Amino acid sequence: MARLLRNNDYLKQIQSDNLLQIIESTESFRTETEQAAQAEMISYLAQRYITGEVFTDTTVFDFSATYLGKNLIEYTNVTAFSAATIYTTNQRVTYSGSIYKSIAGSVAHAYNAAEWTLICVDKQLYYAKLNANEYNNSTTYVLNDVVWYGDKTYTAKSESTGNLPTDTTYWTAGSTYSFTAAYPDDTTKWIKGDNRNQLIVMYLIDITLYHLHARINPRNVPELRNIRYDGNNATQNGGAIGWLKRVASGDVTADLPSILPEQGLSIRWGSNAKNTNVY
After folding, report:
1. What does DSSP say about strands 133-134 and 146-149: parallel, antiparallel, or unpaired?
2. pLDDT in tens, 132-176
3. N or C: at which end does the chain have fewer Cβ atoms within 10 angstroms?
Protein backbone atom coordinates (compact mmCIF):
# COMPACT_ATOMS: atom_id res chain seq x y z
CA MET A 1 0.00 0.00 0.00
CA ALA A 2 1.21 3.50 -0.83
CA ARG A 3 2.45 5.71 2.00
CA LEU A 4 0.96 9.20 1.86
CA LEU A 5 2.62 10.63 4.98
CA ARG A 6 6.16 11.67 5.79
CA ASN A 7 7.58 11.33 9.29
CA ASN A 8 7.84 15.11 9.52
CA ASP A 9 4.06 15.43 9.04
CA TYR A 10 3.46 14.13 12.55
CA LEU A 11 5.30 17.06 14.10
CA LYS A 12 2.29 19.28 13.25
CA GLN A 13 0.24 17.40 15.85
CA ILE A 14 2.62 15.80 18.33
CA GLN A 15 6.07 16.57 19.71
CA SER A 16 8.83 14.25 18.56
CA ASP A 17 9.66 13.05 22.09
CA ASN A 18 6.04 12.09 22.75
CA LEU A 19 5.82 10.32 19.40
CA LEU A 20 8.94 8.29 20.13
CA GLN A 21 7.35 7.21 23.41
CA ILE A 22 4.13 5.87 21.89
CA ILE A 23 5.94 4.03 19.10
CA GLU A 24 8.52 2.83 21.66
CA SER A 25 11.24 4.01 19.26
CA THR A 26 10.17 1.24 16.87
CA GLU A 27 9.49 2.69 13.43
CA SER A 28 7.54 -0.38 12.27
CA PHE A 29 4.85 0.34 14.90
CA ARG A 30 4.23 3.72 13.27
CA THR A 31 4.24 2.53 9.64
CA GLU A 32 2.07 -0.54 10.27
CA THR A 33 -0.47 1.46 12.28
CA GLU A 34 -0.44 4.19 9.64
CA GLN A 35 -1.23 1.65 6.93
CA ALA A 36 -4.13 0.29 8.99
CA ALA A 37 -5.43 3.86 9.50
CA GLN A 38 -5.17 4.49 5.77
CA ALA A 39 -7.16 1.32 5.05
CA GLU A 40 -9.77 2.50 7.57
CA MET A 41 -10.16 5.80 5.71
CA ILE A 42 -10.34 4.06 2.33
CA SER A 43 -13.21 1.89 3.56
CA TYR A 44 -15.33 5.05 3.96
CA LEU A 45 -14.15 6.87 0.83
CA ALA A 46 -13.94 4.09 -1.77
CA GLN A 47 -17.60 4.29 -2.86
CA ARG A 48 -17.31 7.88 -4.05
CA TYR A 49 -13.67 8.69 -4.64
CA ILE A 50 -10.65 7.33 -6.49
CA THR A 51 -8.68 6.40 -3.39
CA GLY A 52 -5.67 5.33 -5.45
CA GLU A 53 -5.24 9.00 -6.39
CA VAL A 54 -5.88 10.23 -2.84
CA PHE A 55 -3.47 7.92 -1.02
CA THR A 56 -0.40 8.07 -3.22
CA ASP A 57 3.26 7.50 -2.38
CA THR A 58 5.34 10.41 -1.14
CA THR A 59 8.83 9.34 -2.18
CA VAL A 60 12.36 10.70 -1.94
CA PHE A 61 13.51 12.22 -5.25
CA ASP A 62 15.63 9.98 -7.46
CA PHE A 63 17.16 11.54 -10.59
CA SER A 64 17.04 8.20 -12.43
CA ALA A 65 13.41 7.40 -11.55
CA THR A 66 10.47 7.78 -13.94
CA TYR A 67 7.69 10.09 -12.73
CA LEU A 68 4.04 10.41 -13.72
CA GLY A 69 1.85 13.49 -13.51
CA LYS A 70 1.05 14.60 -9.93
CA ASN A 71 3.70 12.32 -8.37
CA LEU A 72 4.85 13.90 -5.09
CA ILE A 73 8.49 13.83 -4.03
CA GLU A 74 10.63 15.05 -1.15
CA TYR A 75 13.88 16.59 -2.34
CA THR A 76 16.63 15.47 0.05
CA ASN A 77 19.59 13.10 0.44
CA VAL A 78 21.88 15.45 -1.45
CA THR A 79 25.55 15.11 -0.42
CA ALA A 80 26.57 17.45 2.38
CA PHE A 81 29.02 20.25 1.59
CA SER A 82 32.65 19.49 2.41
CA ALA A 83 35.47 22.06 2.54
CA ALA A 84 37.80 19.30 1.33
CA THR A 85 35.96 18.69 -1.96
CA ILE A 86 36.55 20.31 -5.34
CA TYR A 87 33.15 21.08 -6.86
CA THR A 88 32.15 21.37 -10.52
CA THR A 89 29.56 23.66 -12.10
CA ASN A 90 25.95 22.68 -11.21
CA GLN A 91 27.03 20.14 -8.60
CA ARG A 92 24.55 20.05 -5.70
CA VAL A 93 25.11 19.97 -1.93
CA THR A 94 23.23 20.43 1.30
CA TYR A 95 24.47 23.12 3.64
CA SER A 96 22.88 24.51 6.80
CA GLY A 97 19.50 22.87 6.10
CA SER A 98 19.19 23.89 2.44
CA ILE A 99 20.15 22.56 -1.00
CA TYR A 100 22.48 24.58 -3.21
CA LYS A 101 23.90 24.35 -6.75
CA SER A 102 27.43 25.35 -7.65
CA ILE A 103 27.56 28.45 -9.88
CA ALA A 104 30.93 27.84 -11.52
CA GLY A 105 32.74 25.21 -9.50
CA SER A 106 35.39 25.92 -6.90
CA VAL A 107 38.60 24.71 -5.37
CA ALA A 108 38.50 23.04 -1.98
CA HIS A 109 37.87 25.65 0.72
CA ALA A 110 35.33 26.78 3.30
CA TYR A 111 31.77 27.48 2.18
CA ASN A 112 31.41 30.75 0.24
CA ALA A 113 27.80 31.82 -0.43
CA ALA A 114 28.85 33.74 -3.55
CA GLU A 115 29.74 30.45 -5.26
CA TRP A 116 26.36 28.79 -4.74
CA THR A 117 22.74 29.27 -5.82
CA LEU A 118 19.99 28.38 -3.33
CA ILE A 119 17.54 25.81 -4.70
CA CYS A 120 15.27 25.08 -1.74
CA VAL A 121 15.21 23.97 1.88
CA ASP A 122 16.14 20.36 2.49
CA LYS A 123 13.13 17.99 2.31
CA GLN A 124 11.12 20.45 0.21
CA LEU A 125 8.09 18.90 -1.51
CA TYR A 126 7.53 19.07 -5.27
CA TYR A 127 4.92 17.44 -7.48
CA ALA A 128 5.10 16.50 -11.15
CA LYS A 129 3.56 19.03 -13.51
CA LEU A 130 0.90 17.87 -15.98
CA ASN A 131 1.48 18.26 -19.71
CA ALA A 132 -2.19 19.12 -20.35
CA ASN A 133 -5.24 20.33 -18.43
CA GLU A 134 -6.80 17.67 -16.24
CA TYR A 135 -10.05 16.19 -17.57
CA ASN A 136 -13.22 17.75 -16.13
CA ASN A 137 -16.48 15.82 -16.49
CA SER A 138 -18.59 18.97 -16.81
CA THR A 139 -16.46 20.69 -19.47
CA THR A 140 -17.49 20.65 -23.12
CA TYR A 141 -14.52 19.57 -25.24
CA VAL A 142 -14.12 20.19 -28.95
CA LEU A 143 -12.04 18.60 -31.69
CA ASN A 144 -8.30 18.37 -30.87
CA ASP A 145 -8.64 19.42 -27.22
CA VAL A 146 -5.99 17.60 -25.17
CA VAL A 147 -6.57 16.46 -21.57
CA TRP A 148 -4.73 14.51 -18.89
CA TYR A 149 -6.62 11.65 -17.24
CA GLY A 150 -5.38 8.66 -15.26
CA ASP A 151 -1.67 9.12 -16.11
CA LYS A 152 -2.38 9.48 -19.83
CA THR A 153 -3.10 12.27 -22.30
CA TYR A 154 -6.01 12.07 -24.74
CA THR A 155 -7.07 14.13 -27.75
CA ALA A 156 -10.73 14.84 -28.51
CA LYS A 157 -12.10 13.44 -31.76
CA SER A 158 -15.24 15.56 -31.66
CA GLU A 159 -17.29 17.82 -29.42
CA SER A 160 -18.66 16.11 -26.29
CA THR A 161 -19.49 16.59 -22.62
CA GLY A 162 -19.33 14.01 -19.86
CA ASN A 163 -17.67 11.28 -21.90
CA LEU A 164 -14.57 9.88 -20.23
CA PRO A 165 -11.31 10.04 -22.22
CA THR A 166 -11.29 6.23 -22.18
CA ASP A 167 -14.33 6.32 -24.50
CA THR A 168 -12.73 5.84 -27.92
CA THR A 169 -15.86 7.13 -29.64
CA TYR A 170 -14.93 10.64 -28.55
CA TRP A 171 -11.22 10.40 -27.74
CA THR A 172 -8.06 9.00 -29.27
CA ALA A 173 -6.23 6.18 -27.48
CA GLY A 174 -4.34 7.60 -24.51
CA SER A 175 -0.57 7.88 -24.33
CA THR A 176 1.20 7.64 -20.97
CA TYR A 177 2.79 10.88 -19.81
CA SER A 178 5.99 10.47 -17.81
CA PHE A 179 9.47 11.93 -17.53
CA THR A 180 12.84 11.20 -16.00
CA ALA A 181 16.20 12.93 -15.40
CA ALA A 182 14.67 16.28 -14.40
CA TYR A 183 15.67 17.96 -11.15
CA PRO A 184 12.85 19.33 -8.97
CA ASP A 185 13.86 22.93 -9.72
CA ASP A 186 13.11 22.33 -13.41
CA THR A 187 9.87 24.31 -13.62
CA THR A 188 8.90 22.70 -16.93
CA LYS A 189 8.48 19.39 -15.09
CA TRP A 190 7.90 20.17 -11.41
CA ILE A 191 5.82 22.46 -9.20
CA LYS A 192 7.15 23.44 -5.80
CA GLY A 193 4.60 22.59 -3.10
CA ASP A 194 2.40 19.92 -1.59
CA ASN A 195 -0.54 18.64 -3.67
CA ARG A 196 -1.93 16.33 -0.99
CA ASN A 197 -5.37 17.09 0.45
CA GLN A 198 -4.43 18.58 3.81
CA LEU A 199 -7.68 17.48 5.48
CA ILE A 200 -6.88 13.88 4.53
CA VAL A 201 -3.34 14.30 5.88
CA MET A 202 -4.67 15.69 9.18
CA TYR A 203 -7.29 12.99 9.68
CA LEU A 204 -4.87 10.22 8.73
CA ILE A 205 -2.48 11.43 11.43
CA ASP A 206 -5.36 11.70 13.94
CA ILE A 207 -6.47 8.11 13.28
CA THR A 208 -2.92 6.78 13.40
CA LEU A 209 -2.13 8.51 16.70
CA TYR A 210 -5.37 7.23 18.23
CA HIS A 211 -4.53 3.64 17.33
CA LEU A 212 -0.92 4.00 18.50
CA HIS A 213 -2.18 5.10 21.92
CA ALA A 214 -4.79 2.32 21.95
CA ARG A 215 -2.06 -0.24 21.26
CA ILE A 216 -0.37 0.73 24.52
CA ASN A 217 -3.51 0.88 26.67
CA PRO A 218 -6.94 0.89 24.99
CA ARG A 219 -8.61 1.92 28.27
CA ASN A 220 -6.39 4.94 28.77
CA VAL A 221 -6.28 6.74 25.44
CA PRO A 222 -5.81 10.51 26.02
CA GLU A 223 -9.07 12.45 25.73
CA LEU A 224 -7.65 14.65 22.97
CA ARG A 225 -6.94 11.59 20.82
CA ASN A 226 -10.45 10.22 21.45
CA ILE A 227 -12.00 13.55 20.44
CA ARG A 228 -9.93 13.87 17.30
CA TYR A 229 -10.63 10.25 16.36
CA ASP A 230 -14.43 10.07 16.70
CA GLY A 231 -15.64 12.88 18.96
CA ASN A 232 -15.26 10.76 22.11
CA ASN A 233 -18.92 9.74 22.17
CA ALA A 234 -20.96 6.61 21.50
CA THR A 235 -22.39 7.90 18.21
CA GLN A 236 -18.93 8.65 16.75
CA ASN A 237 -20.26 11.83 15.15
CA GLY A 238 -17.13 13.91 15.61
CA GLY A 239 -13.47 13.90 14.72
CA ALA A 240 -12.03 12.00 11.78
CA ILE A 241 -14.58 9.17 11.87
CA GLY A 242 -17.53 11.56 12.04
CA TRP A 243 -16.26 13.39 8.95
CA LEU A 244 -15.67 10.13 7.08
CA LYS A 245 -19.21 8.95 7.90
CA ARG A 246 -20.70 12.18 6.55
CA VAL A 247 -18.62 11.86 3.38
CA ALA A 248 -19.68 8.23 2.90
CA SER A 249 -23.36 9.11 3.33
CA GLY A 250 -23.17 11.98 0.83
CA ASP A 251 -23.84 14.71 3.40
CA VAL A 252 -20.37 16.12 2.75
CA THR A 253 -18.61 16.40 -0.60
CA ALA A 254 -14.86 16.24 -0.19
CA ASP A 255 -12.38 17.96 -2.48
CA LEU A 256 -11.09 14.64 -3.82
CA PRO A 257 -10.97 12.97 -7.25
CA SER A 258 -14.45 11.53 -7.76
CA ILE A 259 -15.39 8.26 -9.37
CA LEU A 260 -16.95 9.42 -12.63
CA PRO A 261 -19.73 7.69 -14.56
CA GLU A 262 -19.08 6.55 -18.10
CA GLN A 263 -21.48 9.23 -19.32
CA GLY A 264 -23.70 11.92 -17.83
CA LEU A 265 -24.36 12.78 -14.19
CA SER A 266 -23.44 10.90 -11.06
CA ILE A 267 -25.97 9.80 -8.47
CA ARG A 268 -25.78 11.37 -5.05
CA TRP A 269 -24.86 8.84 -2.37
CA GLY A 270 -27.09 8.48 0.65
CA SER A 271 -30.77 8.10 1.32
CA ASN A 272 -31.89 10.73 -1.23
CA ALA A 273 -30.78 8.73 -4.23
CA LYS A 274 -33.28 10.42 -6.54
CA ASN A 275 -31.23 13.66 -6.37
CA THR A 276 -28.50 13.95 -8.97
CA ASN A 277 -25.44 16.11 -8.61
CA VAL A 278 -22.21 16.53 -10.47
CA TYR A 279 -19.21 15.92 -8.23
Report:
1. parallel
2. 999 999 999 999 999 999 999 999 999 999 999 999 999 999 999
3. N
